[in-house]
C-alpha cells in the first residue's frame, strides 16, 4: 500500500516496527542532507584563490538551488510532523482525512519550493551570477534628519521627516509616516518610517521600516519589524528582518537615477524578504485623489517568495509613491492625502551663556525644529547677532556686543518663518 504521503507502508498495526521504519526514513534523509552539505563544503574554495573562484561560479543560481533544497527539507519535516499528529487520532475516518490533508499540504509546499526556485533563477538571469554583497560605508550616507533641509531628497522617494502619506484601497487605509526617530544599522543612521494598515477600524499591520539615503541620492532599505495582528492580538512578526542579522543585507528601494530596464534587489533575507523591482517607464501617467502626473516613474515589484505576485508602482517626482496596481486584478491603492508636520521649535541650551562688553562671542545653540531660515536674536539693545544653520538640532551664532551695552540678562530668541521660541534670561552681558 501507499500511505497519504506517497511512501510505502505495510498493513501491520502501528507499533515498534513502524516506529523503527520512521526512524530509518529520518536517518536516511538526514544522511542525504549531510552528504549534500559535505559536498557543498568540499566545493568551497580555500585560501587566497577563494574570492577569484567565487566570482567565477554561478553564485546566484547556487543560492537559488540551496534555498530550494532547504525549502523541500522543510516541506518534508512539516509533513512528517503533520502525519505524526494524524497517528494520534483514534477515529479512523478522521485519521484518514488528516493523512490526506497532510499529503495535499506536502505537495503544495513542494510545488511552492519549485516555483520559488524558478522565480529566483529568472532573477539571476537579470541580475547576473555574482554574489549579492553590497559594501556599506557609513561615511557614504547622509544625516537623514537633514533630508529636505540641507540634503536634497530623492525625488521619487523623498524621506522628509514629518511627512505623512495616507493611502486607501482594497478596503484598507495605509498610513506611511516618516518620523524623526533614527536607528543605527551597520553603522548607518537610518530614518524610521511607521507603516500602519487598518481595515474595518482595526489595525492589521504595524511596521517600522528603516531607510537611509546615500550621498549619491540612492535610498537604501535596511530592514523592518512587522507586527501582524488578528482580532486585535499580535499574531506574528513574519517578514521582519534587519541588515547584518542572520545574513540579511540591505537593498535599494529607489535609485537616484533610474533607467528603464533596471533590475535591483530591494531587500535580501533568504526566505524572509526578497523583494526586487524592474523599472518599466520614466514618463507614465497616473491620477489619484492627492496627485496626478504624466511623468511618473513606474516599477514592477515582485518577490520570489510569492511566485506570480506582481505590483506596478507609480512614483510622482517630488511626492513619492502615489499608486499601486495589481495588474492581474486591477486592484488599486491610491494616495489620498499628504500631511506635513514641522518639528516643534524648541531651545534646549546654549554655550557659552555670557559675554563681555566690546567682545565678539560665538554661541552654539541646541534644540529642535531649526531650519536654514532660522534667525537668532537677543533681547534689548547694544547687540548684533549673525546666524549660521548647522542642522535641525543645532545653530551657531556670532554675537557682537557693544562697549556700552547694558550689563544685564537677555532673552534668547530663535525665529522661523512660521513661529519663534524664546529662552528667558539665557545670556548675560558682563563688564
Overview of the molecule:
The chain has 431 residues and is an alpha+beta fold. It has three domains: 16-127; 138-340, YmcC-like fold (Beta Barrel), CATH 2.40.360; 346-430, Sandwich (Immunoglobulin-like), CATH 2.60.40.10. The protein has helices spanning 16-42, 50-56, 59-87, 92-127; strands spanning 163-169, 172-185, 188-199, 202-213, 219-230, 233-236, 241-242, 249-254, 263-265, 267-268, 276-288, 291-302, 310-316, 320-325, 332-340, 346-351, 354-356, 360-368, 375-378, 383-391, 394-401, 409-416, 419-430. The strands form three sheets. The chain has a 15-stranded antiparallel sheet that branches. The protein has a four-stranded antiparallel sheet with strand order 16-18-21-20, with no helix packed on it. A hairpin with a 2-residue loop joins β5 and β6 (233-236). α3 (59-87) runs antiparallel to α4 (92-127). The longest helix has 36 residues, at 92-127. Residues 1-24 and 30-54 have low confidence and may be disordered.
